[in-house]
């Protein structure tokens, strides 16, 4: 027990150790195997705008040795630290030296690996780095006695891309000729391992060969990580448990990607993972228990369950209990396009057949109309609406389990400006702590979950009147501690709106969600003409090979922006080279499988660009004119493909991302338009038309499974998105919000807002 307490006390104090001159171990003094990286430009370590140093252009892979400082007894263990960086650079500080200094402070000799980079443009970016990890294990074992390390207690700690590399290295034979030594670590630490989950097959990627066996493995992962999906870490841990391999996982409720060793804004738990590893290390490094563990963590409160399961099914059920959900992978729907920002969800066992009286858990009368998508977080459902009685905008919170209205607040006076829409078209957004609502008149407001108003402002008052011909709409985006709002508008007044002495500009705002105050404002120029400058799109976050960006569609083109600064990273060509002046844009961008998709308006094609580029980016492919097109719905990325719902050709198509090949196209039923964006979940596509009819489509072959009328007599212009969350469907019509649950046999009473 004293030994355990000593470990925990040491691990809870992570102090900066003064960097001394580090010994270097060259991995390939006799020559490096293919693939080779160029020696020009030269290797460099550069501090970024976030104050963190990163290493680039490593042509000579090597190890930097971090030994325990004077007075700290060596534990006998050694760890090779493999930083991330998306294979384009190395996160050399917060995922490298910081980790090494923490390990050294606690008596562990750390070997910081600078593996070859960049390799992100190679066919297999991980191939060279995998060789470097395997060679590092051989070399460290050779030199173990020299560093006071037990050759049978050498592990690997991998962050992000480094986690992917470490896992592939540990599950494959040596990938270079002349290998002489053991390349499997004695224990493995994976911190948000990057892209180990294949979304197309819903399994671990094929080059992770678990049949080869793994050593005791510790995993830490944030549940809201969109770059390294938690499904991969979870499946890995459960597979190891099924193979009776000691394994431990911590799934933190929040934290995003890249937290490393440092506290992050809005993250309450991820940087305590070293303490939790200390508990496992006592058992693994000091000869203690080898009982398998799964841990699911929310903030600092965590539950531990000792697992001795014989089947994957029982392990999944236990994980579901720990998560407090009926499904092991129950997902929230926190923003307009869902948890993945692409319209998809991992929900399972969703209904195909129901009605307004069957499988209805509850329904709530809406105070007025609105096209906003309902947002779901655990037991809260948030809805934007108008109030037809008071002619105002309202924000609502509803109990997901019962349908009871928890609170309803009037936000602003007025509900519409024209007959085509109203101010309640934008969808709210939540990060699990607060919820943000935006309305077409410029009102932007945040509440906590109890309904307390945190702040309110109006974008028109702060930045000038909107210059739109029709009612403006864009949904707020909450991403990694920032609130993003875009306003892509005309450069001159229209119908007397938008007058501003200093000129009218389109812009992207980053806002502190806690205070509502601007962090920065980025001007986004465009040479589009007249109404073609107007966009009703929402910014979409996307990560590719470790690079995060915000995707924006509007002004006849696509752009990618740095989410930290707003700086434009790349810009596509125009889909409107003749400068047609009435091509306003509604569909937001969508990305998947390394491809970014944008939809030109008015029966025009969809356009694709390859992710990861910089500067002016050419089109990767363009669909055949009118074969695949969308004027209003935002496409879906699901099961490895794009699904484009066309309101102008009354069809839905499944499209291969890298080639634009159409796998199938089917006509949408009925004569009413479909303008609500499609949702993908449980192998099905859910769409809704103006009348409130919900159609369920088989994602595999396009077969229409059912069409269910959910609207009321006289309903029109229903444009909300069908939401899949917590094992249920949420359907917003003009007059009601329905909660559909496959386990419910008959209708619950209408709560009527009470």
Task: Provide a descriptive summary of the structure in words.
- With 754 residues, this protein is mostly beta strands.
- The protein is built from eight helices and 47 strands.
- The strands form eleven sheets. The protein has a ten-stranded mixed sheet, sandwiched between helices. The chain has a five-stranded mixed sheet with strand order 28-29-30-31-35, with no helix packed on it.
Estimate the helix proportion, in percent.
Answer: 10-25%
Mean pLDDT: 85
Q: How large is the radius of gyration?
A: 27 Å
The counted number of beta strands is 47
Largest sheet: 10 strands, mixed
CA-based shape: globular
Task: Measure the end-to-end span.
Answer: 55 Å
List the helices and strands and how they pair.
Elements: H1 2-12, E1 23-26, E2 44-47, E3 53-56, E4 62-66, E5 78-82, H2 93-105, E6 109-114, H3 127-142, E7 154-159, H4 161-170, E8 187-191, E9 197-198, E10 203-204, E11 217-222, H5 230-242, E12 247-252, H6 273-285, E13 292-298, E14 301-307, H7 312-323, E15 360-365, E16 375-377, E17 380-387, E18 392-399, E19 405-413, E20 429-430, E21 434-438, E22 443-448, E23 453-458, H8 459-463, E24 477-479, E25 482-487, E26 507-511, E27 518-523, E28 540-544, E29 547-554, E30 557-561, E31 568-572, E32 590-592, E33 595-599, E34 606-610, E35 615-617, E36 621-622, E37 636-638, E38 641-646, E39 651-655, E40 662-667, E41 679-681, E42 684-688, E43 693-698, E44 704-709, E45 723-725, E46 728-732, E47 736-741
Parallel strand pairs: 5-6, 5-7, 7-8, 8-11, 11-12, 12-13, 31-35
Antiparallel strand pairs: 1-4, 2-3, 4-6, 9-10, 13-14, 15-47, 16-17, 17-18, 18-19, 20-21, 21-22, 22-23, 24-25, 25-26, 26-27, 28-29, 29-30, 30-31, 32-33, 33-34, 34-36, 37-38, 38-39, 39-40, 41-42, 42-43, 43-44, 45-46, 46-47
Helix pairs in contact: 1-6, 3-4
